[in-house]
Design goal:
The strands form two sheets. Strands 5-6-7-8-9-10-11 form a seven-stranded mixed sheet, covered by helices on one side. Strands 1-2-3-4 form a four-stranded parallel sheet. α1 links the parallel β1 and β2. It has two domains: about 120 residues, Transcription Regulator spoIIAA (2-Layer Sandwich); about 120 residues, Transcription Regulator spoIIAA. The longest helix is centred in the N-terminal third of the chain and has 15 residues. The protein has eight helices and eleven strands. α2 crosses α3 and α7 crosses α8. With about 240 residues, the protein is of the alpha/beta class. About 5% of the residues have low confidence.
């Protein structure tokens, strides 16, 4: 199914739009992929977000994926939160351009394992003191250097690597207080559920963290890290450097 939205969505049209989508799902009687071109959407009201979140939650068994084209950071964050609350984070795909959305619609783009329901395979590779974890879209490189642990994250983290990364970091922190250094200059803004996972892990390990220094190139990534560190109770031990 393909949906195009424009303008400021205040919620007045949500009910008829959702009814039409329900009718289409009833007609096909099988899980469908929903594509949304939201590149011309200026703003979305809180009421609209709540309506869509409830609809996604109640219809998630009928949707194999939700793919949205947008370049608006606030809208993307709202989508991540809605998908998280509707338990559909693994089916949400964000496209930066309409061309990318249409390519996926036409089946010419690479399939996203999380969106298609394929099993995500995590590869592990160790070289000296460095451990590399990758799911094909995101790579973690973790290395211990005396009393410090350096973590480099490249790509888009949708949560597939969390368990392995936390286990590796937890083992290094078990030896005592460590300084954490994160290089996120090539990391994309993570899914909301990933931010929540990191917040919980940092909170549970804060007594073993002497300091946390983060280098990033994206203001949005920096803001996300700052909020997570604050919620985890790291206080002045956390320093985020970037643009």
């Amino acid at each position: 199914m393909m949906l195009r939205a424009t303008g400021h969505d205040r919620g007045e049209l949500a009910a008829p739009v959702l009814e039409e989508l329900d009718a289409e799902m009833a007609r096909f009687r099988r899980p469908l992929r929903l594509f949304v071109d939201a590149t011309a959407v200026r703003a979305v009201s809180l009421r609209t977000q709540l309506l869509w979140t409830r609809w996604l939650d109640s219809r998630r068994s009928f949707l194999s994926s939700l793919e949205v084209a947008t370049q608006d950071g606030a809208l993307e964050l709202g989508l991540e939160i809605a998908a998280h609350r509707a338990h559909m984070t693994d089916r949400l795909v964000i496209h930066r351009t309409v061309a990318g959305l249409l390519a996926s619609l036409g089946g010419t783009s690479a399939r996203c394992p999380a969106a298609s329901g394929d099993r995500v395979v995590v590869s592990r590779r160790r070289s000296g003191s460095e451990l590399a974890l990758s799911d094909g879209r995101c790579t973690y490189r973790i290395e211990e250097e005396r009393q410090a642990v350096r973590v480099t994250i490249d790509g888009l983290d949708r949560g597939a690597l969390g368990g392995d990364a936390f286990a590796a970091l937890g083992g290094l922190l078990d030896d005592g207080h460590k300084h954490l250094a994160f290089d996120l200059r090539r990391a994309d803004p993570p899914a909301a559920v990933v931010t929540d996972l990191w917040t919980g892990w940092l909170s549970s390990r804060r007594t073993s963290i002497a300091s946390m220094n983060v280098l990033c190139a994206s203001p949005r990534v920096g803001l996300t890290v700052s909020i997570a560190a604050f919620r985890a109770g790291l206080g002045p031990r956390s320093v985020v450097a970037g643009p």
